UniProtKB/TrEMBL annotation:
<dbReference type="GO" id="GO:0005829">
    <property type="term" value="C:cytosol"/>
</dbReference>
<dbReference type="Pfam" id="PF01042">
    <property type="entry name" value="Ribonuc_L-PSP"/>
</dbReference>
<comment type="similarity">
    <text>Belongs to the RutC family.</text>
</comment>
<feature type="region of interest" description="Disordered">
    <location>
        <begin position="31"/>
        <end position="58"/>
    </location>
</feature>
<protein>
    <submittedName>
        <fullName>Uncharacterized protein</fullName>
    </submittedName>
</protein>
<dbReference type="InterPro" id="IPR035959">
    <property type="entry name" value="RutC-like_sf"/>
</dbReference>
<dbReference type="GO" id="GO:0019239">
    <property type="term" value="F:deaminase activity"/>
</dbReference>
<dbReference type="InterPro" id="IPR006175">
    <property type="entry name" value="YjgF/YER057c/UK114"/>
</dbReference>
Length: 169
């Protein structure tokens, strides 16, 4: 075998070895998302609280996912289904937060474990905001979850308030 043939064979061998090394490095650095996880996945479970307004559509009052609770938008409807349309803002806020308290309790959580709250207020003005905030502060106490307040032109059935939340379990 000529020295050129030996050199060519050596180069091809080195190139093949380098290619195999690159493939091994590349394949071992692939993201874990392509591999089956050995960690247990959180299980989704609906929460139904008898002390809260029943879900009125294709949704659950809340969903547990691992160590978190996702509470649906709650409207001022009593646990026996009475809609508080036309009632004062104070009565509507109390009904919404009573529903939330019942859902938190049924799931094993509490107001001091609320992580985030989103509030929708129709007919937004200083009086309605002050009334909402006073009752809300009594509900959460010294705990101050993250919160967004969204003024909206109208809500379903002419309600003045809707609240959704995320809480820890």
């Amino acid at each position: 075998m000529s020295s050129n043939a030996v050199k060519t064979a050596a180069l091809w061998g080195a190139a093949a070895g380098a290619l195999v090394s690159l493939l091994v490095v590349h394949l071992t650095k692939q993201p874990q998302r392509n591999r089956p996880s050995l960690e247990p996945r959180p299980s989704l479970a609906p929460v139904t609280a008898s002390g809260a307004a029943p879900a009125g559509g294709h949704y659950s009052q809340a969903m547990k996912n691992g160590s978190e609770l996702f509470i649906s938008g709650l409207l001022p409807i009593t646990s026996d289904g009475v809609k508080l349309t036309g009632s004062p803002i104070e009565d509507q806020v109390k009904a919404v937060l009573n529903n939330m308290g019942a859902i938190l309790k049924a799931s094993g959580s509490s107001p001091n474990k609320i992580i985030s709250v989103r509030v929708y207020l129709a007919d937004f003005n200083h009086e309605n905001w002050a009334a909402f905030n006073k009752i809300y502060n009594e509900f959460v106490g010294d705990h101050k979850p993250a919160r967004a307040v969204v003024p909206v032109p109208t809500l379903h059935h002419g309600f003045l308030v809707e609240v959704e939340a995320i809480a820890a379990l």
